[in-house]
Amino acid sequence: MSTDFPSNSRLFKRLIAVVLLAVLLAIADRHTTWLQPLKATAQSATAPLAWVANLPAVFARWGESQLRPRDSYQQELQQLEQELLIYRGKLQQGVELAAENSRLRALLNASEVLAQSLLISEVVGISANPYHHTLVINRGSDDGVTVGQPVIDADGLIGQVVAVREQASTVLAITDASHALPVRLLRNGVRSIAEGTGDSNRLRLRYLSTTTDIVVGDELVTSGLGERFPAGYPVGLVVSIERLKGRDFLEVEVRPAASIDRSHYLLLLFNERNNSAAVR
To answer: What number does CATH give the domain 117-274?
Structure first.
């Protein structure tokens, strides 16, 4: 035991010395600036050690981000695809609204007879029979619509009303095989009869002699004869003329001016007798 005591005594003395040194350094650091250069040097020397010590935490965060569940990526991708679909849908709606506004503006500028009153209507149905060209519109007797009333679109004559209900009417198109109307050539005033053929893109002219002054490209308008259709509305354009031997009359094909099978908005024309229905 006598041999261990001096060794323990030396260790105790060293411990006391270290503690006193630490206390003195703490007091000096708090109340003086003597130790600032030494602290700066120590921090610079230990910075690499701190960076190395922090590497495990950095690698842990990186690994966590890389090991993110695949389901979360799929959910995020699905959400982005849904948002894209919504935006594209809204874009389509905006394009359609712009196109519809353009059609309505063209429709309101279609009439050349300013004395006529006009009523906008919408096509809500068509004939299921391909050989009968009829349209159903959302205007009827409640709006002042009458049988025989002319109907046009933004480009020309569509046809006439043949049946009326309270809130809907049926329109017979000029291309129906049973329909005929008096027309004239805009260039020279030559009169004829335009008949439907059952083809929504074709009319034919009747009773034009082989000596008639008519050429491809001539425009046809309503003549006003018969007082069914007001004069001056576009009917079509001459696209074909055939002079057949042994025939007294020409074979003339006409392309309708109106979009018979495509127009969505139509105009009803009112004369002086039913002029009480104003433009709506």
So the answer is: 2.40.10.340
